[in-house]
Structures are given as C-alpha cells and as structure tokens.
Amino acid sequence: MDFFIQQFPKVELHSHLNGSIREDTLKMWHQNANITELIDSILSPETSCEEALSNCFKSFDLIYEATNSLERIKILAMQVLEDYDNDNTIIAEIRTTPRKLEGHSQRDYIDTVVNAFEDYIKQRTKTTPFYPYLILSINRSRLNDANETIELASEYQKKTPFVRGIELSGNPFKGTWKEIVPLMEHAKELDLPITMHIGEKVDDEECVKLIECYPLRVGHGIFLNKKAIELMHEKNIGCEVCLTSNMVSRSIKGYDKHPMMNKSLFQGKVFISCDDRGLFRTSMVNEMKRAIQAYCHNNEQEGKEFMKQLCLDGIQFSFLSSEIKQKLRDYVLGINV
C-alpha cells in the first residue's frame, strides 16, 4: 500500500510557500543555528487551541526572517515545487502573500515566484503531468496591502498561467469580517476565483459572513456552525483539510476527528492538503497515509478508491481551466486501482 500511495497522483490545494521551507534550508538561511529546535519548542507545549494557533504564527515570523530576499524566495519556490513533484503531485496550488522585501515591491515578489515556476517547468524531465500555480494571499494582519494584491492578481491572471486566484489567510484573530468581505467581493468582481481560511476559531457570525462571500473552497473549516455548513452545501463549496496542521494547532484531537471528513456530509468536496509541509514536517504522501489510516481503517482497496476519488475531486475544485481539468481526469481515470 505504501508503494501505491507514493506512486498514485495527488492534488495539493492548500500549501503556503514560506511554511513549506525545507528544514535544511531554514537552518542554512537563519542566523539562529538552533532555529528548528526553537520552533519545536514553540509548537510542542500542551496549550489551548487558541494559544497553539498563535504559536504557529510566531513560527511563521521566524521563517520570514530567513526568507528575506528575492533570491531566497526563488530558491524556496523551486524547492517547494521539487518536493511536490517528488510526491507525484499533479496539481500544486501554492499560496503566498506578496511581501514588500527591502527595496522591492509586491510586483517584484510575484515576478520572482512566477519566474521560479517557469524555470522549474522548463528544466523538468519527468513525463507525468504536473501543473503548479500560484494564488496570492490576503493576509489578515496586513489588510492595507490587500487591494493592491487583488489588482495584481487580476493583472497576472490575464498574462500568465502561473497566477490563478486569491485566498484569505493569516492570523484569524486579526482583522474583522467587516473589513474582509468588501475585499473578497472586489476580487469576485474581477472574476478571480477565491478560497478562504474559515473556521479556524470559534466565531459563528464571522464564519457565516465569510461563507456568504461564496468562495469556491474553504480552508480548514473546523469550527463551523449549522448555518455555515448548510451554506457550503447549498453553494457546493469544497473544503481543504489539513490533518497534521490541525493536530499541531490542537484544532482536532485525532486524525480521525476532522468534522469535514464525515463522508455522508462532505463526500466529493474535501481535499487532503499539507498546509505548511516544512513547518509541520509532512508531505502529500504522509498526509494520504494518515487519511487512509484514519478514514479507511487501513482497508487496502477502500484506501485506493478513496485516494483516487480525492484526486478526482481535487482536480474538479482546482483553479485550472476546464481543458486541463479534463486532461487530468482522463489521466487519473486511466489508472486501475
């Protein structure tokens, strides 16, 4: 079964660029030689969900100290694509907030990542399908930059296949839904597909107000009330499930406890993702193993069919064109399980 999981195609729809940094790269770039041990100490103590989530964002700040130049951002992007390619991922949707690094603009940051994606595809020798693309992040802690990011996403969407949408992320205890909703509405006016981190904290009003923006997908979706879930069903909104991430943040108490993995409620609308594969020391292969163990009870045939369906559902809910989606569906359907 391990060989099947490694070789079978996978779809990644929730991966943050900086959080996917390799441990060796982080150690090499950060001035603190004990950086990974420091992050471990931040993430490991038994704390409440709110404290654990806050600690995750402290860890991101430490990573940003290491990814502090465009040269490093390009290397990071190339490495992240290589890691997903090695997992036999056929769609890698990577999200990042365009940071204004010293002396540079959001546009410079986007150009750097797009250039890295272009270079990786040009030099790639594998013959299996691989479609990486970028979605630009609206960071709840930096909403002043959001309109510029949205306008840039619209511009780049028209001129490169490597930028395809907008997402909302960042510390869920920053920013308010009243500030966020107009931004998401503006993105939709520009025909940008959107996905949003929703339900990382208990806030019924915010969850409903954000889901009423009708994103194509929701990230995490842990703490959703009945009305929010009904809206997701009504509008066919999918959910990006990040099992290891939610375990680290103490949002769930077991890999088999994710509320969105209820097959009778969300079959066909969930997608297993890494979130921050470097920070959480995981991969698409590891996440699939954990999902199969938790939700297929190690039944080999059920696990294979489950994994195939996850891949097909991920293709359907990606931000790729209809033509590419059909090509990838045909590819996956042609694999016997």
TrEMBL record:
GO terms for biological process: adenosine catabolic process; inosine biosynthetic process; nucleotide metabolic process. It comes from the Eukaryota. GO terms for molecular function: adenosine deaminase activity; metal ion binding; N6-methyl-AMP deaminase activity. Residues 9-332 form the Adenosine deaminase domain. It holds the Pfam family A_deaminase. Its cofactor is Zn(2+). Keywords: Hydrolase, Metal-binding, Nucleotide metabolism, Zinc. InterPro entries: A_deaminase_dom (IPR001365), Ado/ade_deaminase (IPR006330), Metal_Hydrolase (IPR032466). It catalyses: N(6)-methyl-AMP + H2O + H(+) = IMP + methylamine. The keyword Hydrolase applies. Its EC number is 3.5.4.4. Belongs to the metallo-dependent hydrolases superfamily. Adenosine and AMP deaminases family. This is Adenosine deaminase, putative. It comes from Entamoeba dispar (strain ATCC PRA-260 / SAW760). The lineage of its organism: Eukaryota, Amoebozoa, Evosea, Archamoebae, Mastigamoebida.
